[in-house]
Design brief:
- The protein is about 40% helix and about 15% strand.
- It is of the alpha/beta class.
- The chain has one domain: Glycosidases (TIM Barrel), CATH 3.20.20.
- Strands 2-3-4-5-6-8-11-12 form an eight-stranded parallel beta barrel, surrounded by six helices.
- Helix 7 runs parallel beside helix 9 and helix 11 packs parallel to helix 12.
- The chain binds beta-D-fucopyranose (FCB).
- Beta-D-fucopyranose binds next to loops.
């Protein structure tokens, strides 16, 4: 046996509603696609037609021995107009969650994963001062209607990446480029998370599930390793604060770090995180670039020594070990790896990627770090935001024209690992030695 993860380790896959469902016109990414902003000319309306293929896709998860599945809900299907609830949308998700539970696959539900209704976008989205309360209202309806079917919830996916992509880089809807807007959005997302965190617990408690609810955030965490200069070290620290700590300390502790606030706790000091969700993809070497204000005088660089995925991101498995250890030391709560994966259309790197990253997880678990779950990003090739359909992260290949799904070699490997909770010599020979 080359390494073992332990029988109580849960393995699954992660997706986001907008990236797989297709068919919805009432959201910010539909408009962005209509405006021709998707690099390869594809459109969010197509995706994987998952909305009509839930059964088929759950059968594929089952085939790959998923213990758990991270799914998103499309807000615009549930609240198509402000305060108006669509019973068909809610019924659809009730059915999906019921089917997952019947298949023995534990759902982890994401409430906000980069997409939301057009009416919300048009009133200013997460920049609007009322956005936390509007998100709370959505959360309340969802949990009152679906809360008996899921114990585990992610309020918001990657607030830092969302705020950066949509409000600083301007590559995502609504396409703004403003640091003050970035700060407003983060602040509102922090409030939204804390309100939703309390609400999910409150509702699940009166439903009779006290003590059986896990609520967290999927935090995108990168490793920033500075080059050897004082300027680069300073830039890496500033970037860590602006990109990671503002959102994390806000969401976990309720603390508004400068420049979000003055370090106080406007929503009461607390601990608003039952598990630490961690999305890990890559590391950056940080150089010093005094002219670059929006990146805190830092420049993100590749390491020429490391292999790259199809999008040019460095593949650095030790990073997952380093960040899990770091955040466990800070917060001492269970860790769920809520995303980890690789853009690799040929699937010639993915099996090794999985092997290397899970090996780090096995090491963490041996050391007693409570990494309880791992969700591979992603179940199947899907609509990868502004990259469109051509960036392929799936364990399953999808032909978007025919909607034919084919489990890749890496998907079979992942399924075997999930079944045995170990990587054996046989598997290494079967999947890694070409
Ligand atoms: C993460 C997103 C996810 C997907 C992967 C590749 O930042 O949460 O939706 O785009 O990256």
């Amino acid at each position: 046996m080359t390494y073992s993860l332990g029988k109580d380790f849960l393995m699954g896959t992660a997706t986001a509603a907008l990236q797989i469902e297709g068919g919805d016109k009432n959201n910010n990414w539909y408009r962005w696609s209509e405006q021709g902003k998707i690099k390869d000319g594809s459109h969010s309306i197509r995706a994987n037609d998952h909305f009509n293929r839930v059964e088929e896709d759950i059968a594929l998860m089952k085939k790959m021995n998923n213990d758990t599945y991270r799914l998103g809900l499309e807000w615009s299907r549930i609240e198509p107009q402000p305060g108006q609830w669509d019973s068909k949308g809610l019924a659809h998700y009730r059915k999906e969650l019921t089917l997952l539970n019947q298949a023995g696959i534990k759902p982890l539900v994401t409430l906000h994963h980069f997409s939301h209704p057009l009416w919300f976008e048009d009133m200013g989205g997460w920049e609007h001062p009322q956005s936390p309360e509007i998100f709370l209202r959505f959360t309340k309806t969802v949990v009152e209607n679906l809360g008996d079917l899921a114990s585990d919830w992610i309020t918001i996916n990657e607030p830092n990446v969302y705020a950066l992509g949509s409000y600083v880089a301007g590559e995502w809807p609504p396409g703004k480029q403003s640091v003050p807007a970035y700060l407003r959005v983060l602040k509102n997302m922090i409030k939204g998370h804390i309100l939703a965190y309390r609400e999910i617990h409150r509702i699940r408690q009166y439903m009779g599930f006290a003590g059986k609810t896990m609520v967290g955030v999927a935090n995108h965490i990168r490793v920033f390793d500075p080059e050897d200069s004082a300027g680069a070290r300073l830039a890496a620290r500033l970037m860590d604060r602006m990109f990671h700590q503002l959102a994390i300390r806000g969401m976990v502790e309720g603390k508004m770090l400068f420049p979000l606030g003055l370090g106080g706790h406007p929503l009461k000091k607390g601990f608003y995180m039952d598990f630490f969700g961690l999305n890990y993809y890559s590391r950056d070497i940080i150089g010093f670039k005094p002219t670059s204000f929006t990146t805190m005088f830092g420049e993100q660089k590749n390491d020429p020594e490391l292999p790259k995925n199809d999008l040019g991101w460095d593949i650095y498995p030790q990073g997952i070990y380093r960040i899990c250890k770091d955040y466990h030391q800070r917060y001492q709560v269970p860790i769920y790896i809520t995303e980890n994966g690789i853009c690799d259309a040929d699937d010639d790197q993915r099996p090794q990627y999985i092997y290397d990253h899970l090996e780090q997880v096995a090491k963490l678990r041996e050391e007693g770090i409570p990494v309880e779950r791992y969700y591979h990003w992603t179940l199947m090739d899907n609509f990868e935001w502004v990259e469109g359909e051509s960036a392929r992260f799936g364990l399953i290949h999808c032909d978007f024209e025919t909607q034919q799904r084919t489990i890749r070699k890496s998907g079979r490997f992942y399924g075997d690992i999930a079944k045995q909770k170990a990587v054996t010599q046989d598997m290494v020979e079967k999947y890694l030695q070409d």
